[in-house]
Amino acid sequence: MRPPSIHGFTLVELIVALALAATGVHGLGAWLTEQQLRDRADALLHALRLARSEAIKRGARVDVCPAAGACAGGPLPWEDGWIVVADAARETQPPILRERRAADGITIRGNRPVADYVSYTSQGRARRLDGALQMGTFTVCRPGLRARKVVLASSGRARVETVTETCP
Predict the structure, then answer these.
(1) For the whole prediction, is pTM greater than 0.85?
(2) Model confidence over 15-45: pLDDT tens digits?
(3) How many secondary structure helices (H) and strands (E) does the chain include?
(4) β-bridge mates for residue 144, sequence order
(5) Which CATH architecture has domain 11-166?
(6) Domain ranges in the chain?
């Protein structure tokens, strides 16, 4: 007579299954964090593209400024969010075309030409309010991940680059 078969897991099988599950959860968390960084860089890219196309369509200046109300003056951090506004220099309450709020743990730093704002002329060129050429780079970071750069070219077009440098 055969002994009754026992269904279940051995201790070794259980330990291996738990280790694999923990590795999968960690991998999923890292992937989600990477996706959040990619989303933030893409959202800034889309805001710049919207501002450029709206400036051409409206035949007037359109600005992208860090955080709500920042177009009125004073530098604010880009990671707090940004707004796309039509003709901010001429109106006290410019119409907001798009608004994006903060994302936890992600920093966005623009180099000097784009640290305060990006402004598009009716020809789709990025120019400072004083008429100077405006091009620069935004670095989108989260500690431990590879940085993404949103690069604004002299033509007014923008693109996203993934770089090898790791965020501090």
Answers:
(1) no
(2) 777 776 666 555 677 778 888 899 999 999 9
(3) 1, 8
(4) none
(5) 3-Layer(bab) Sandwich (3.55)
(6) 11-166
